[in-house]
Amino acid sequence: MTATGERSFPEGFWWGVATSAYQIEGAWDEDGKGPSIWDTYAHVPGNIRNGDTGDVGNDHYHRYREDVALMSSLGAGAYRFSISWPRIFPEGTGRPNEKGLGFYDRLLVELLAAGIEPFATLYHWDLPEALQVAHGGWQSMNTVHAFADYAGFVASRFSDRVRHFFTLNEFHSFVDMGHRGVRAEVGGGKTVRLALAPGLELSDADLNQVRHHSVLAHGLATRAIRERARAGTKVGFAENIGTAVPIIDTPEHVSAAEAATRDLNAAYMTVMLEGAYPDSYLAEAGSAAPRFTDEELETISTPLDFVGINVYRPSAYVEPSEDSRGYRTLPVSASHPTMGSSWHLLDPAVMYWAPRLTTSLWDPESIFITENGCAAADVPAADGRVYDTDRVMFLRACLTELQRSVAGGAPVDGYFHWSAQDNLEWGDGFGTRFGLVYVDFRTLERTPKLSADWFRHAAQRNAVV
After folding, report:
1. How many Cβ atoms are within 10 Å of 372's Cβ, its own excluded?
2. Are 432 and 421 in contact (CB under 8 A)?
3. What's the CA gap between 181 and 389, in Å, rounded?
4. Which residues on adjacent β-strands are paired with residue 81?
5. pLDDT at 3
């Protein structure tokens, strides 16, 4: 059923949900799977809140049939999931693990039988620990080439059923937060430090080289997928786009937002979509700038079928400036509202500006909103239901802005809500809930929330409801 009202989406628009392997699968050492850097990181006391780990997670490895049935009940027509690299290659390279491959074979059978289109992410941060130990992980070109080999192999195995592959997810997150840690402004000049596995603190030069290795891995993987996948297979990346929101929608403010957004994404999206690092980025890095060749830049910018952007919050508010950058970043008010995570500044307008600026800056053929969602204080009521009215508000407001962006010409072909169900929220553990489905982590019972009802109606009507 497609709505004909002013807030409807184009015919064929994908309504999907998303997860990642480490956050839901569990079975961390079953059926030949090797350890990942997240298994190692989570097992160190103090790294994860409350000592939580992904050892069991949501037990999706054993409950995937139930989870696919839940997705179907939500009206999801697409599912973005990640494949665990160490489940396929326990050592990162070498002989593939047939039992690991078998799990994804079974998952794909279940998805397709339910009429849900699979969208596979090849890397959602769970690097094989063997590559971290032997080569320093993403600090080494050995890992870059190993990822390309893994990507090509997986595409050759699953592209008869998977038509869309994302290479890597959130470069900025796993690189900067995993190899330095970052500080996020939460309003009023206050910041929080965020860190991810493997929990390193590299120098500027080493961090910039890891950044370069990550985008080179994307380029090599894109080429490997094209070489080994079935004809018609589509490939792109998924990045947590840094979005500068203009304070006022005037040509001058929008130009400032474009310049700021290009700078915010210099190390990742900009170089992948332009084939060059901005001069300002290299000048600011100085002697710590990454080492690269023209051939590598050509590989990094291999043409893509789509661009995936994860959209949660504005990275900055800007206005025009007469300085060389052309914009000025504005402070965030201490009273600016947030969602359930302290870093999550609330401004639904970012869902309008992120696709619009992506389009005006880089003109991609297709865009997917690969993640959007919010944490909330989800507690079952006496009647057993979870009344996450704030998430419903968030969804309605964000999807209204997305629809406005699509109506204005942004080529957005689908939306993936983060996440399908509550899960291990990385360093926050199990206490920070993003799901449309509530998970009792003692019993692992699943319960759709009020937001699941909203999502189902929106997906069925193909419109904001």
Report:
1. 23
2. no
3. 33
4. 120
5. 46
Q: How far is CA 249 from CA 111, 207, 253, 257, 350, in A?
A: 42, 36, 6, 10, 13
- What's the pTM value of the predicted model, to 2 decimals? 0.97
Kindly report each contact of residues 440-445 with a partner whose C-beta sits within 8 Å and lies 24 or more positions away, as own/partner.
Answer: 444/58, 444/59, 444/63
Active site residue 98: no
Residue 250 to residue 455: CA distance in whole angstroms? 33
Residue 79 included in any domain: yes
| Catalytic residue status for 170 | yes
- 364 domain residue, yes or no: yes
Evaluate whether 52 touches 42 at the Cβ level (below 8 Å).
yes
Q: 336: closest CA among 326, 324, 346?
A: 346
Catalytic residue from among 117, 371, 401, 425? 371
Q: Among 110, 129, 170, 401, which one carries the catalytic annotation? A: 170
State the alpha helices, DSSP H only, in 173-228. Answer: 178-179, 204-228
- Is residue 6 assigned to a domain? no
State the residue range of the domain holding 173: 14-461
Total domains in the fold of the chain: 1
For residue 38, the surrounding DSSP H or E stretch is helix 37-42
| DSSP H/E element including 415 | strand 412-418
Task: Annotate 263-322 with DSSP letters as a single string.
Answer: HHTIIIIIHHHHSS--HHHHHHHGGGPPP--HHHHHHHT---SEEEEE--S-SEEEEE-S
Q: Which two tokens stand for residue 154?
A: 């997986």
Give domain status of residue 5, yes or no. Answer: no
CATH number at residue 227: 3.20.20.80
Q: What is the pLDDT of residues 122-146, one digit of tens each?
A: 999 999 999 999 999 999 999 999 9
Q: Share the mean pLDDT of the chain.
A: 97
DSSP symbols for 48-98: SGGG--TTTTT-HHHHHHHHHHHHHHTT-SEEEEE--HHHH-TTSSSS--H
